[in-house]
Amino acid sequence: MKFIHTSDWHIGRSLCGVSLLEDQRHFLRQFMDYLEKERPDAVVIAGDLYDRPVPSAEAMELLDEFFSKTVLELKIPVLAVAGNHDSGQRLAYERDFLAKAGLHMAGTLTNPAETVALSDEWGPVCFHLLPWLDPAAVNSLFPEEERVRTMQEAFDRMTESVFLNVKPGVRNVLVCHGYFSMGSGGSQVEELGGSELVDLSAYRDFSYIAAGHIHRKMPAGPNLRYCGSILKYSPNEIANTPSVTAVELDGQGGCAWREVSFPPLHDMRKITGDFADLLELPRTEDYIFAELTDLELVLDPARRLRERFPNLLGVAYTQREQISSAFTVEAEEAKNLSISELFSQFYQEITGVSLSEDAVKLVSDAAYQAEKEAHE
Description:
There is one protein chain. The radius of gyration is 28 Å and the shape is elongated. The strands form 5 sheets. The protein has a 6-stranded mixed β-sheet with strand order 6-5-4-1-16-17. It has a 6-stranded mixed β-sheet with strand order 7-8-9-13-15-14, with no helix packed on it. A 3-stranded mixed β-sheet has the order 10-12-11, covered by helices on one side. The protein is about 30% helix and about 25% strand. The chain has helices at about 20-40, 55-75, 90-100, 135-140, 150-165, 275-280, 300-305, 320, 330-335, 340-350, 355-375, and strands at about 1-5, 15, 20, 40-45, 80, 105, 115-120, 125-130, 170-175, 180, 190, 195-200, 210, 220, 225, 245-250, 255-260, 270-275, 285-290, 310-315. β16 (about 245-250) and β17 form a beta hairpin.
């Protein structure tokens, strides 16, 4: 069986005030062309379809376009779970319109957990759908049980629900959204993106675990994989290469996968250098974060850079931040220094260059005027 694992679409997201909807539309249309050519047995979306619980009308129209094309026209089942950015109730409502056609959307928790069985020449593959969950949601689902307090306890409780649908000798796939590992030796960070680290060792016999929430593609265990987001969504993700993961299961539950990337409408890059040098770089429509190494402040750098980089998203002075600000003067020494002398020492410590004579005079005049006004 061949299915496509994808997650973290964040449809409707904006970055630095710039809407990424057209970038997302560009990706999804390439993705639909790929699906039409490859004809996988299913598409698995591991959460965060939308960027916010109440998406815009434009965001909803774009996702509906994907569902209609994939489920109704291509006849490819879509199995999805809600992520922490989604409204589970809203996604569950959307599912009702296309459920019979092959859209399986686990927006909210159920007991037992929702399971979808698809078949190939070797028999059934059971996809177990676990949407984003927290202790409060699990406690509401099991009011008669002992209350859970942590994400680990919540997943352990839901694991019992999932395993009600596990049959011996049948290949199983878990679809989930959160921060996961497989036993010891994982990440030392105990929380990421509002999710506590959860050990999914109970699922180590599953053929594959399709996880969402982390935007960087990576394995997190022998059978646990994050496919990453479909676009770069922050400056911290510039090094990422967004993709989807094509997964193939053999008749014994063995798993092979490969990454499939699509050219973005706009790449996201960081450029670094003196302001004058950056102005000499080729014009580009990419999303740009500029890092200026100038020691002196540049007048209105964003406006001037935007003439060459129309999709400039941010400007920062890296060199000024890197220079040590640990400037100290002993109290007794400070008593014997004028304000202009103190400022000159401070300026040299921060910038690495001496204050000009004209600047020293300007500081001295300003200090004199301030002191005069204080005594009037």
